[in-house]
Structure formats: structure tokens, C-alpha cells
Amino acid sequence: MKLVAGYPDSLTEKPFHYCPGCTHGIIHRLVAEVIDELGIREETIGVAPVGCSVLAYEYFDVDMFEASHGRAPAVATGVKRVHPDKIVFTYQGDGDLASIGTAEIIHAANRGEKITTIFVNNAIYGMTGGQMAPTTLVGQKTTTSPFGRDTNTAGHPIKISEMLSVLDGSAYIARVSVHDPKHIRQAKKAIKKAFQVQIEGKGFALVEVLSACPTNWGMAPVEAVKWLADNMVPTYPLGEFKEVE
Amino acid sequence: MKLVAGYPDSLTEKPFHYCPGCTHGIIHRLVAEVIDELGIREETIGVAPVGCSVLAYEYFDVDMFEASHGRAPAVATGVKRVHPDKIVFTYQGDGDLASIGTAEIIHAANRGEKITTIFVNNAIYGMTGGQMAPTTLVGQKTTTSPFGRDTNTAGHPIKISEMLSVLDGSAYIARVSVHDPKHIRQAKKAIKKAFQVQIEGKGFALVEVLSACPTNWGMAPVEAVKWLADNMVPTYPLGEFKEVE
Amino acid sequence: MKEEIIMAGFGGQGVMSMGKLLAYAGMKEGDEVSWMPSYGPEMRGGTANCTVIISSEKIPSPLSSRPDTVMVMNLPSLEKFAPMVKEGGTILINSSLIAKEVERDDIEVIKVPANEIANELGNSRVANMVMLGAYLARKNIVKLDTVKKSLKDVLPERRHDLIPINEEALDRGAALVK
Amino acid sequence: MKEEIIMAGFGGQGVMSMGKLLAYAGMKEGDEVSWMPSYGPEMRGGTANCTVIISSEKIPSPLSSRPDTVMVMNLPSLEKFAPMVKEGGTILINSSLIAKEVERDDIEVIKVPANEIANELGNSRVANMVMLGAYLARKNIVKLDTVKKSLKDVLPERRHDLIPINEEALDRGAALVK
Amino acid sequence: MGEKILMKGNEAIAEAAIKAGCRYFFGYPITPQNALPEYMSRRLPEVGGVFLQAESEVAASNMVYGAAGAGARVLTSSSSPGISLKMEGISYIAGAELPAVIVNMMRGGPGLGGIQPSQSDYFQATKGGGHGDYRLVVLAPSSVQEAVDLTMEAFEIADRYRNPVMIVGDGIIGQMMEPVEFKKEIDPADLPKKDWATDGAKGREKNVINSLFLDPRELEKHNLKLKAKYDKMKEKEVRYETYKMDDAELVIVAYGTTARIALSAIELAREKGIKVGLIRPISLFPFPEKIIAEAAGKVNSFLVVEMSAGQMVEDVRLAVNGKKEVYFYGRTGGMVPSPEEIVEEIVKIGGAIK
Amino acid sequence: MGEKILMKGNEAIAEAAIKAGCRYFFGYPITPQNALPEYMSRRLPEVGGVFLQAESEVAASNMVYGAAGAGARVLTSSSSPGISLKMEGISYIAGAELPAVIVNMMRGGPGLGGIQPSQSDYFQATKGGGHGDYRLVVLAPSSVQEAVDLTMEAFEIADRYRNPVMIVGDGIIGQMMEPVEFKKEIDPADLPKKDWATDGAKGREKNVINSLFLDPRELEKHNLKLKAKYDKMKEKEVRYETYKMDDAELVIVAYGTTARIALSAIELAREKGIKVGLIRPISLFPFPEKIIAEAAGKVNSFLVVEMSAGQMVEDVRLAVNGKKEVYFYGRTGGMVPSPEEIVEEIVKIGGAIK
Amino acid sequence: MEQVKRVVFDEERCKGCELCTTVCPKNIVKMADRINSHGYHPAEVAAQEECISCGLCAMICPDVVIRVYRPE
Amino acid sequence: MEQVKRVVFDEERCKGCELCTTVCPKNIVKMADRINSHGYHPAEVAAQEECISCGLCAMICPDVVIRVYRPE
Ligand SMILES: Cc1ncc(C[n+]2csc(CCOP(=O)(O)OP(=O)(O)O)c2C)c(N)n1
Ligand SMILES: Cc1ncc(C[n+]2csc(CCOP(=O)(O)OP(=O)(O)O)c2C)c(N)n1
Ligand code: SF4
Ligand code: SF4
Ligand code: SF4
Ligand code: SF4
Ligand code: SF4
Ligand code: SF4
Ligand SMILES: [Mg+2]
Ligand SMILES: [Mg+2]
Predict the structure, then answer these.
(1) What does E71-129 look like in DSSP terms, one character per residue?
(2) Chain E neighbours among F 103-162 (CB < 8 Å)?
(3) Is E354 domain-assigned?
(4) Contact A76, F66 (CB under 8 A)
(5) Spatial distance between the Cα atoms of C119 and C139, rounded to a whole number of angstroms
(6) What is the C-alpha separation between A58 and D97, in angstroms, rounded?
(7) Are E18 and E138 part of one and the same domain?
(8) Residue pLDDT, tens place only, A169-209
(9) Residue pair E56/E29 in contact by the 8 Å Cβ criterion
(10) How far is CA F160 from CA A74, F278, F283, in A?
């Protein structure tokens, strides 16, 4: 029999520490599959963030960095400038990328830094126990927006993909979701493109992946992916926002 | 005889320390005139940046802060939250706002912080002697882009107004120039709107003012404003990018 | 009087709140108390534990390296904490989930079929209260009654309907060792 | 031998490069040298100055609180630095721009109409070299010739066409005090 | 008020700040202090205050600068890496002479390190992790009640000196529950008006909040003014506690959580017949050097215990000034010393006591 | 090479880095060190290197982390407020054991302060302004030639220990021109390969650059390893210079620019017949405590001179350990002490010498 | 050993999230009654013969538990 | 004192940038030969009677040197 869905080479054997049903795991697998398919495992250097995926350096079977909170794009810049012929990616959460690391992601994009960023937007700070993220939905209750996010004091969910698309240095920007197999397939396609854009030296590439945090959303996993589809997707339209030829 | 152009009340008597022909001076005067016209001198609290306009706290005759480099929007947020009934503005250069202070301006805008930002874009770091700014034009020579800004390593001029317009919290975003009287008049109108938007509690307002740095551009003032008109304006289209009703 | 207690179990077994309840009741009776949880990153699946100290004097360290009593709700906790119990101390074991025997003969071992009893009462989540009831009956550090009265202060208002079943569980636990 | 010199003037008067040239020539002659500029924020309009020390021994402090010689190109510099000159020291004054007299009688005062001579030579920017020439002739710390030879090393290549006029200015200055 | 309630250290500090008239909190999440901002996010709106989760620690410290300059009592909190990011801001707050209270629930470092209890930011807190000659008043509670009391005092001290005050704790102080009592409650409206604050120059000269002095003579003058303030703190704000010092032959010097553990160790040591006492610095800056210097005249030796590789030990050595041996015992990385270990150390020194 | 050229300190350090095989610079402008990045922006492209002006000091320090982890020799430079912003990053670089060189041309603080020379970041540099128990090797040149030599050594030390090294100077060291000679030139291609670096896991196990250890036992182990390294530095990397110590009755302890001025003061004092010597720490960490302790056995007293309110003086006191009086003279805010002032101070102490 | 099953579960990795059970077009992925050593009820497919090797279960599994094979 | 001039220069503030000279529709703003105490040649209007009080010179002056009056 032929293997149609297996275990990617670019993942170590180590079981993920993520909560049951946490879609960080799906996204890890997709990234690993793409690295496998592009045959770049031995050319790739990854940068893990601070966030639930802080231990990503234990899961990807490639050279890895553990960056300080929000600074993965700066770390990746340092790496890429030293090894312009290698493939460098960052894997970052929404607190990491869209809050503390805002300046770093914007300037990496604006410089057209030839790196790939996987941006996992789960509308919450998972690692620290469910605080509000800049991507938290309007009215969503979190441990630091106990009465629901109030736009009057905390603003609106931030649109990272739309914002980065404005910059001349970004070459590929897409938003995808992993709430069902169809979207997972699209997500993988986008991730693959985001690596190819780097391989072709076109510029900065980012894929924003809408992701579920069953634990801090206070839902069972099956319920969480449904909530993702019903609430996050309408707030964060999916699609390719930018693709430079 | 009737005074048709005088000395604004909201400026102290102190002569500016700016270089001859530095258009920071024009912008200061416009801001002061607007404060006068709106009758808010005693309600206004300003935040000066680190940059050539670091001493703005000596020129505006209103309560003032001197903020750390890039953090004026955070300082203004602190002030505005304590005094929601007062008018708070920041005055920032392009190094200050578009480089080190990227995260602060984006999140102030995204929160819809009810403050007004005067963003003086002179495509260079004036204060520190003419280094490249994120807004430096392609090919422009500066002390840290001695061979001209190279998009391949330093990226493209960053479009702050366009980027902030994407965010839901921004209520008024405009780009203006001060290279001739006609544009100065438009600039003043935009600055006035940006204060009115705050008075009306609509959200975050920013006016990007294209400005000349004769000294670090290595030009005589007359030449510098011409260069501004001929080179900066085409790169940074003027206009109102966003106006929330 | 000074009693150091460690409670341990899986994340969802309510060891934290059982510790809080005990500490609260101790405070109500005028004792000095402290409650100290283990804490980790928000990655799930591990075991949780807390240390409660109840004393008639000011409490020095809020941690305990040689607890007087240990209550374990699951197997990993047994393995981790049984060796720490003070000589002559007591260990209470949730025998519903732990088949293994304690390999020490210098401490008292009390088996509490906490989950079974909780299930009998119709709510597996009160296994912790069964365990606590057994402890209270055995040790007399804090009165069972004070603990019961503390329930309404410790439980959030929206859970006050659960007070009766919690009381029942405490009683059933207490009954076990009487 | 140890000579401490301060040079001062408006921003555009070339005091920094005149100091560099002197220090460079000193180095060429095998002396220990240091050159220390004043620095400030990039806001214009102030005066600039630099301190050059030339010595046969290692130089301790690169700053000078009692310079042997001061050269002032404008009035504010005169007022600032004249009081600092060491007793018995020398002050060279750009008399083209400074009408004021020095109010000390314990130092030697040399008046150099630097701008006038520079204008005669057709380039007001070499006033600094006129001043330096006068200094070199008076003090003999570094040879005029070495300074001339240093021009090509200190001036950027695109300015090498200016070497002759600079040399002339040095000579004219030197001639003044000979 | 007056009633005892059982509270976590993190939450108790938050409530204490509110009781001290603080209505503004700016911070960014980080373990192990999240319960503090979370509590504030629920409570502050109830009392008409503002909770704002900043985009970063850098932004948070500058929001504090703004709110403090605007005349408010304001709090921020974080843990080690986050505090490092606030260093520039803290130097500005101190430089501009603004009152503010900063909480650091220290965790193991360096770098990302871990999240377990630590005291390895002592130098950063007391000597100035930011640039320039500035000082924070640094207070180190060792119980939840003390955390409450010191937090309330911190706001007073901050206002009195126009200087930031830092409360240092660790995961144990922050997560532990103990009974606490709130002894008073201040209505912010009753606080004296700060006439230097920026609230619109109505009917007065404008106010400026600033730390820039381009003329070095001016900046030196400013530094001398600051130094005079720090000297005054050294005179007036020293806080410490001693325990069983009357007959002590060896003194443990320890603060915060470690001091609690030292108390257990002292019990054990005394059971063994070794006369051990404790000096517990409560203010880390100003450091209680006088009492230590005095003790140096009486006891045989000192044992400094820290959850660090040895930081406060330098201040103890400076105070002892060579008069007696100063020993050090430290655990790092989130490891908490046990009373037994400390006793072992004491026994070892016992041999070394001349 | 071998030829003397006249260079500014800032530029000489930049060139020295290149001669040491450094091909990567990440930094952000700030006075008084701009000539350094500006020089790099011209020179690095010539030698196939990369100059990148980062969006901030925070980003710059993390780019350094990346480049260092990727195996390169890398430099960053800044001045006081900018260095404060790098504190978290520096703690990470130290925590992940990466070699890198950081230059701090100190200016007057706190806050925005001023831009004139200062030495008030001594604590920050030597005790750890960032969180956790980490140490930088801190080198303080007092001439342009020494700045060159120490910069080249800094890269060697950084690689040898896998630890960041900081060069501290001030506006004087940075802006002053003196003749310099570059004694050697290293081709980066000749440097030994760093087998721990991340450059793609080709034919080997993957490499990881990390400072996270969630298990406190692991983190403590890591801290002990770091401590062993710092202890080794204390043994092997102490650098200092002494001057006229043979007959000295009073020793000035001063570093960097201040030491140069102290030399002038010593001349003046000796003219007056007062026998003054100098101990000039070149490595501020590890601190030359042994030579100071030895001197304490011989001289009458110590005078520490700093451009700060008194920071290194604590390390001197620790080294002297009560054996002799340690006096302090400091100027702050960008004021530079004059030789005359120092002599005055010496004369004053003269009266105090028993 | 020849591969006979179409869907293979690495049971010890399974966290019982149930996501796989929601996507199977054949509705044959079920949660087992037993628990694995981490305390989770693992997912399983009893009716291997009904499986069409579509791979959807593997695609949504966050813990890379599932391998899917197709007869050649 | 009655205001008679239409354009008044606060000469000591002038930095001689010449911007005002480029915008005057009447082309009457000129740089003076004298220098002020900061070493700058200040701008001036000799032909006051030609001024139309348009205010453009004041509008572009970066140093708030110029006051413009209009007869009522
Ligand atoms: C400087 C700093 N600030 C704060 C933290 C604490 N912290 C760790 S992870 C995190 C946010 C995680 O949220 P996100 O990036 O959305 O990732 P997720 O866990 O949701 O995947 C925070 C605030 C830290 N480690 N360092
Ligand atoms: C943290 C920090 N980094 C760097 C500096 C140095 N600095 C002062 S002003 C400035 C940039 C000024 O440029 P810009 O903001 O464009 O203002 P301009 O002078 O052009 O008006 C810099 C980098 C500083 N003071 N603080
Ligand atoms: S807390 Fe949320 S994001 Fe983190 S592992 Fe659990 S489910 Fe995933
Ligand atoms: S340097 Fe440029 S921006 Fe700064 S004052 Fe001079 S002209 Fe204006
Ligand atoms: S491969 Fe498809 S059909 Fe087979 S079990 Fe999985 S989801 Fe069901
Ligand atoms: S999706 Fe994976 S982890 Fe979840 S139940 Fe199915 S097999 Fe188990
Ligand atoms: S007001 Fe108008 S017309 Fe009069 S001088 Fe000025 S620019 Fe010329
Ligand atoms: S524009 Fe103003 S500063 Fe410039 S020359 Fe005219 S009057 Fe003078
Ligand atoms: Mg998240
Ligand atoms: Mg600028």
C-alpha cells in the first residue's frame, strides 16, 4: 500500500506539548510537509517565538533559534544576512507578531527581507493563560478583557495581512485557516508559496493562519474550530492579499 | 492696520534652534496657530519626540512632555487616559515615528487612541547628523546609505499614512507638504481637522507633513523646498487618506 | 500546632480549590495559613499540586519539604510525593485511581475511594471533597463544620447550587475514617 | 616638548580640519599627537573648537584646561578661550573678524587678518590655513613643510586641486610673523 | 476593611494599589504575574480607573511615564525579561522625577530562562539596569500582607520623592495565598494636587516633564539634585527586620521568599544548638547597611542566602567592610533553597568560624 | 599594516572590527557614536560584509543574536539610552552563549540626559543591566590605539567563551583622533568553524540556539555552567595597567578617559611632591581586584575617579575590603573632571591620610 | 511486514481531541473506550474496510497521530 | 504707536534662509547686506508701499520672523 498521509521528515519524533485539539499542531505539520516537499530540510533555519509554540525548536528537525518575544523577524534578518543562500522562516503567534513585535515584522517586510513568516493568529495569548491579543475579536472575553473586548478602550482586531500588503517590500501575503480539511489544503498551498517566494528571492512572505485555542477560548476542540470558522473567518477575510510576480 | 499674519499665542518667545530654512519651524507655527484658533491652549498637552524637534517643549506654550525616542504615542496614551477631556498631541520625526516607534504609533492608531499626531517626514535623521530614515527616498545618499538607498538591502520608503489608514481605529489620516504657501495652507487645514477629530472624540488622527532638512540634504533652503516638491511629493502622494464621519 | 499538607493530582481534579478551601477554613478558625500552588506554563497535561500550611504561629517557609500529610489523587502524584511525607506522617490515596501500594512503613496510609464515592453522589468532580472530608476527620486540624461554612465564600456565586453535594461529599469522606 | 593648542571658530570656518592637519603633520614628524573636537547635537549656529596636543611623550589627557596656544577665528571664541591660555602662552586672533582687544597682558597676542588674506587669495575658506601658517611660523612645533606635505593625505582626493591655494595661504600666514 | 481575606500575592498587590488611590495600570502579560493585570482588568473599571494592556513592556513603561507626568498614581508590573525591556523607560521616569510603582515578579534568567522563582534581578533593581546614575526605591515583601502594606507605602514614597519605586517579588510571593487585611483606603480625589503635573496650563505657567539637559553643567546640577534625593532616601527610607539577633553568632541575610525559608532554617539550626539570627532587608535600596555594619561588630559571620548566583552579597560585603567573613549560598534558575540545605551550609561555616 | 594613521576612536573601532574578521554590523544611530556605523556603512560593502541600520536598538540586538547564532563575528554599537533598550537582547545573547561585541559610547544620563562624555553605565555593563545572572566581559580602552587592540581582542574573547563582550568608551574616546596601527588582519574564512552554529543541518544533527529551560533543575545547571565560565574569565581575562605604583602613597583608580586625565593629575601632584600612582582597570569585568587588594597592603589610601556619581568605587571597596580608606571623586552629566580638580581632591585626602 | 490497514493511529500520541471524527466522510473514526498512558481516549477506526484513504482524518489531526495508506 | 508698515521683520530671529524672497508676488522681499547678531543677513522689505499684505512671506517663514498688516 502507498502512504498517502505520513509523518513528515522535517518533524522530530517528539510529541507536541500542545493542548488537545490545538491547531498549532496542524500548522507545524504543514510547514514540515512543505519543507519536505521542497527538499530544503538541510538548508532551512527556523526561528521559534515566545508563545505556546516556544518549543517549536524541539519539533522542527532543522536548525532552530529560540528568539525573544516578538523579535523573531530581527533574528531571522540576522541569520539571513549571514546565510543569504539558506531558507529562513519565523513561526510566530499573534501576541508575538502583532503586539510586542509589531516594529520588527513591519520593518522586515518593508526591507523586503527574504524570509518566510508563519503567523499563527488565534486571537489570544495562549501561553500566558488567555489574555487579550491585538487580534482578539470585538466582544471576546479574555482574562484581560473580562467584559469582552471594548473597541472604545482596546481598539479593533488588528489587520496584519492587510497592513503588510501596503508595504513595497512584501512579496507574498496570504491569510488562511485550518478549521477543516479544505482550508487546511489551501493553507498548505499558501505556506508552500511563501517558501517558494523566498527561494526565488522575491522578498518578504507571510502567511497568516487563523488557528484555534480550545483551552483559552474555553471550548472543546470540535467546538473551537467551529467558532473559528463562524467568528474569526468573517473578521479576518481569507485570501491572497499580495503576490508579486 | 489689521494684523493678517502675526505671532501665535501658543508659541513661547524663544527663537527656534533649527537650521536656517528648516521647515520644522513652519510646522510648529501651524500647530500653534491651530491651537490658538481652536482656543484650546489651556487644555492642550503636547509630547515632544527625540529628534531635531526634541526642544519643542520649549517652543509650544502649553504643558509639554519630552518623550523617549519613538514612544511619544505611548506617553500620549498615558496622558490621555488620565485626562480624557484634554487635548493631547504628539510631534514626531520620521526616525522617531516610522522607525523605532513603529509599534507605538500603530497600536495607538489601532486602539483609536484619541490623540493627534503631527508626523514630520523629512526623509532623514536630522538630529543625529543625516542617517538614513525608513522614509529616505530610493537612491538618496545619507551618512548611512553612502551609495544611495538600495532597495535590495534597505527596502523602500515606508508609507506610514497608507498603512495606518488600514487600521479601524484611525479616524483621520492625511499627508501634506510645506514647500510653498499653497501647500502650507492645506497643511494647516489638515492639522486643524486632526485636532477637531480629537475634540469630537472620533479616534486617532495623524497628519504626515513632508518637510525639508536643508542641512542634511546638503542644500540651500530654497533648493531644499524645491527638492521636496520634486522628489518627496511624487514618492509620498499628498491627500486625505482617511476621514471617518 | 503546625500542619503542612501537600495535595496533588491531575489538572482537572480540583486539588487547588480543595487546598484553598482548607486554608480558608483555617483562617476562619483564627489560625495562620498559607496556600502555595505549583505553577507552570499554560501547557496542559501535567499534574498540579499545592501546599497548605496551618499553624498557630507565624508561618516561616510557605513551602514544605517534609509535609505532615500528603493527599494524592493520581498515580504520578503518589510517586512524586509519597517519599516526602514526614516520618510518622499520613498519606491519603485516591484508591479509585491508584492501585499501587505505598512502599513505606513509617507512615500512615489511608485509602479513599474518592472517585467511586463522588460518582455515587452523581458528580465525579467532588472527588476532591471526599478526600478532604477524610483528611479532616483524620487530622482534626480544622473543623469539618468550618470547612462546610467556608464553601459559600470560596465557591463563586454561580456555583452555590453545588454546595449541598460538596457538603455531602465532605461528610462521606469523613465517614470513611471515623 | 609638549604643546597644547585649542582652535575655535564658527561652524564653517574650518577649525576642525586645521586641527586635523596639524595633528597629522605632528604624527608624521614622529611625535605623539591627539586631536579632540567639541561635539554637540546637529543643531547649527554654534561655535566649534578642537584641541590638538603634540608631545614627545605619551599624551595623558587629550583635553586641555590651560593651552599653550589658542587660535580664535571669531569673537565668541575669543571670549571663551582667551582666559584659558596658559600664562606666557600665545593667542592668535583672526583680526579680520575680531575687533576686540585681548584683556590680558601675561600672554602674547598675534593678530592675523586671516579672512582678508584669504579673500586676497580668492578663496575665503582658506582663512584657516592663513591662521595655521602664522602659528607654525611662530611656534616651530611642526615644520611648515611637513604640514604642506600632509595636505594631500588629509584633504579628500576630490579636493586635491585646492592644495596649491592652501599652501599659498600657509605661506602667507607664516610670512606675517616672520 | 479590617477584615481578613485570603488572597494571592499578585492580586493582593493589585488591590493594595487600588486602595492606595491608584487608578491606572499599564502592562503586558508575562508569567508569573499575570494574575495582577488580570485582577486590574476586572477591578479598575469598577472604581472608574483605566486598565490598558499595552502593546509591549516598552510601551507600557512609557504610558506610565505619561500617566505619572499627568499627575496620576500609576502602576505597572512585569517579570524579568519584561523588566529588562522597561529599562530605558525607567531611566526616563527617574530622570524626569516622576512617581510610579513598578512590580517585578522575578523569574529565572538569563534570556528566556524559566518561570520559576528567582532573585537574580537584584543588581538590575538596585544599581540601575538602565543607563545613568539613578536609583529606585526597591522594596521586597516576604509575605502577602507585607506585599499589601509595602505597595501602599510605595505610592506614598513615590509621591514624596517624585521617584519610581519598585516592588520585587517572585513566583512564590505572587502565587501564594495568605490572609490579608487592608488597613486603609485612599480616595484619589483626596490626594494633594501635584502642581508640577501636566493637565493643561490653565491660569498658570506651563509645566514640562523632561530629562534632557543639553548643557552638561545643567545636567550635572540635575544629577546632584537627584543624588541629594537618594541620600535622603538612605537616611529616611531604610527598612529591615531582624529575628533572634540577641544571641546570634551567625546571621543570615536574606530577603523576600528566601527570608521566609531562612526562618525555617533558623528553627532547625537552633534545634541543633547553633545560634543563628536573621537580618531581612525590606528596602533593598536604600540598603540597610548600618544594621549590618553594627551586627558585624557582634556576630561571628554572615551567610547571605539568595535565589541568585550572588548579588545582594556584594552589598552585604560592602556593609561588613572586611570586619567578618561573609559567606554565600545561592540557588539559581528557579530552584528554591530548602531550609535543610541552608542548615547544612550553616554547619559547614560552623567549622570555618574562628 | 604597521603604518600609523590618524583616526577617530569610533572609526578606529569599526576598522578594528573589520580587521578582526567581523563582516556584520547591526545598529541604530545615536550620538556620540554615529561615526562608527557611518564608517561601517561605507566599509563593509567593500569587504563583502553587511551593514544594516536596524529599526531600533531592540531589533539591532536581536539581529546580532541571529547573526551570532548563525556563526558570524558581529558588532553593534550604541550609547546609553540605546544600550538600555538592548538589555533584554543582551541577556538573551549571554543566556544562549553567543559571541558578539557591543560598543557603548556612554553619555550623560539618566533619561535622555545629554550627549557629553560619561561613565555612568558602569553598573549596567558590569553587574548586568538585563535580568538574570549573566556577565559580559567589559573592556575600557583609554586611547584610540587601545580601542583598536581591545576591539580585536574582544572578538577573540567572545569566541573563546561564547559570550558577549562589551567595549565601553565615551564621547572623548569616540571622537578623539590619535595615531593608530593595525597590527594584524584576519580573514573570516580562516576562522575556525563554529560547530554549534545554525547554518542548515546538512549531514549533522540540528543545532539549536536557545536560552529556555523550563525545568528549573536544567536552568540551574545552565546557570552553573555560565558561572564556571565567568569564574574562568576572572582567572584568565583580568587586564589592567599600573603607573608609578612603586613609591605611591595614594592610588588613583580610574578607567578610560578618566584614567588619561588622572595621568595629568599625577604629573601635577608629583610636582607638588605627593606620591600618587594609578591603577587603571582595563577589564571592568573581570575586575582587577587582586592588584587592588595587593595595593591595599602598601598604599595609604585610594581615590576612585569616575565620570559618574560613584559606581566602580563599589568594586574598589569590595577589593580593598576595609583595609584602607577608599575616597571618591566624580563628575556627572557630561562634565569631565580636570587634572587640577583631581589634584585638589588628592590634597584634601592628604590631610585625611593617617 | 506488509501494511494491511488503511488508517493507522499512533495511539500514544493521540490526545482525544475528536477532530478526526468530524471529518471522515465514512464516519468510521470513533473514540475508543480505553485510555492511553496520558489519560486520553484515543481515536480509532474499526471498519478499516470502509475507509477510502481520503486522508482527511490525518489532515486535521493536530498531533500527527494518523498515517493513511492506499492500496496500489 | 500706530502701525505704519505692512510687513515687519523681527530681524534678530531671521536666519537668512531666503525662503520669503521666493514667494512674494511683488518680489519686494530682499536680503539685506547687514548681518544680525547671529551672523545672518536678514530679509527686509524696502518697498513697503508695494506690499499687498498677502501674507505669503510670513506663511513660509520658518522662524516666525514676519508680521503682516493690512490697512483696515
Ligand atoms: C518580553 C516578554 N514579554 C512577555 C512575555 C510573556 N509571554 C510569553 S508568550 C506571550 C504571548 C503569547 O501569545 P501569542 O504570541 O499569541 O502565542 P500563542 O501562545 O497564542 O500561540 C507572552 C506575553 C515574555 N516571555 N517576554
Ligand atoms: C533610544 C534612542 N535611540 C537613538 C537615539 C538617537 N537619536 C536622536 S534623534 C534620532 C533620530 C532623529 O530623526 P527623526 O526622528 O527623523 O527627527 P528629525 O531630527 O529628522 O526631525 C536618533 C536616532 C536616542 N536619543 N535614543
Ligand atoms: S493554550 Fe491554546 S494555543 Fe496554547 S497549546 Fe493550548 S490550545 Fe494551543
Ligand atoms: S538638521 Fe535638518 S531637520 Fe534638523 S534642524 Fe537642521 S535642517 Fe532641520
Ligand atoms: S482516510 Fe478518510 S475515510 Fe479513511 S478513516 Fe480517514 S477520513 Fe475516514
Ligand atoms: S485528531 Fe488526532 S489527536 Fe485528535 S482524536 Fe483524532 S487522532 Fe487523536
Ligand atoms: S505680504 Fe505678500 S506682498 Fe507683502 S512682502 Fe509679504 S509676500 Fe510680499
Ligand atoms: S523666511 Fe524668515 S528666516 Fe528666512 S530669510 Fe525670510 S524672514 Fe528670514
Ligand atoms: Mg496567540
Ligand atoms: Mg527626520
Answers:
(1) T--EEEEE-HHHHHHTHHHHHHHHHTT--EEEEEEEBS-STTB-SSB--TTHHIIIIIS
(2) 106, 108-116, 118, 120-121, 123-124, 127-134
(3) no
(4) yes
(5) 25
(6) 73
(7) yes
(8) 999 999 999 999 999 999 999 999 999 999 999 999 999 99
(9) no
(10) 25, 30, 16
E297 at interface of F, judged by CB pairs closer than 8 A: no
CB of C61 less than 8 A from some CB of E: yes
CATH (domain of E226): 3.40.50.970
Residue having the nearest C-alpha atom to atom 13 of ligand 1:
A125
Q: Do residues F148 and F12 make contact, with C-beta atoms less than 8 angstroms apart?
A: yes
Nearest by CB: E261 against C33, C35, C61: C61
Q: Are residues E306 and E157 in the same domain?
A: no
Is the minimum CB–CB distance between E63 and chain B shorter than 8 Å? yes
Q: Are residues E153 and E56 in the same domain?
A: yes
Least distant ligand from the CA of H65: 8
What percentage of chain E carries pLDDT values higher than 70? 98
Assign D95 to helix, strand or coil.
coil
For chain C, report the end-to-end CA distance as a whole number of angstroms: 22
- Considering the domain architecture, whether residues E226 and E265 belong to the same structural domain is answered as no
Q: For the CA atoms of F268, F273, F274, F280, what is the dihedral angle to 10 degrees? A: 50
Q: Mapped to the 3 state alphabet, what secondary structure does F27-87 carry?
A: ECCCCCCCHHHHHHHHHHHHCCCEEEECCCHHHHHHHHHHHHHCCCCEEEEECHHHHHHCH
Q: How far apart are CA A105 and CA A102, in angstroms?
A: 6
Domain that holds residue C164: 2-177
Q: Quick check: A66 and F96 CB within 8 A?
A: yes
pLDDT one-digit tens code per residue, D124-166: 899 999 999 999 999 999 999 999 999 999 999 999 999 999 9
Local structure of E209: helix, strand or coil: strand
Q: Are residues E230 and E248 in the same domain?
A: no
Residue A205: give the domain boundaries: 24-243
Q: Which domain holds residue F155?
A: 5-200+208-236
Does the Cβ of G7 fall within 6 Å of ligand 5?
yes
What ranges do the domains of chain G cover? Answer: 6-69
Nearest-angstrom CA–CA distance, C67 and F268: 70
Residues E91 and E171 in one domain: yes
Q: Tell me the three cell numbers of residue C173.
A: 469522606
Across the range B105-109, mean pLDDT stands at: 98
- Give the count of domains, chain C: 1
Q: What is the CATH number of the domain that holds A154?
A: 3.40.50.970
| B71–E210 CB contact, under 8 Å | no
Distance H61 CA to ligand 8 centre (A): 5
Is F354 domain-assigned? Answer: no
Distance from C-alpha of A232 to C-alpha of A244, rounded to nearest angstrom: 27
Q: Do C173 and C134 meet the contact criterion of CB atoms below 8 Å apart?
A: yes
Same domain, E226 and E248: no
Domain range G6-69, its CATH number among 3.30.70.20, 3.30.210.10, 3.30.70.100, 3.40.30.10: 3.30.70.20
Tell me the ligand closest to F32's alpha carbon. Answer: 2
CB of G61 shorter than 6 A to ligand 5: no
pLDDT along chain F (354 residues), means of 10: 87 98 98 98 98 98 98 98 98 98 98 97 96 98 98 98 98 97 96 97 97 96 98 98 97 98 97 97 98 97 98 98 98 97 95 54
Which chain B residue's Cα is nearest to H21? Answer: B222
Helices H, strands E: what count in chain E? 13, 15
Question: What gap in Å lies between CA G48 and CA A154, rounded to an integer?
Answer: 51
Q: Which residue of A has its CA nearest to B168?
A: A156
Number of domains composing chain B: 1
Q: Which helix (H) or strand (E) holds C131?
A: helix C127-139
Whether residue A96 has its Cβ less than 6 Å from ligand 1: yes
Query: Is E152 inside any structural domain?
Result: yes
**Same domain, residue pair F21 and F115:** yes
Total domains present in chain F: 2
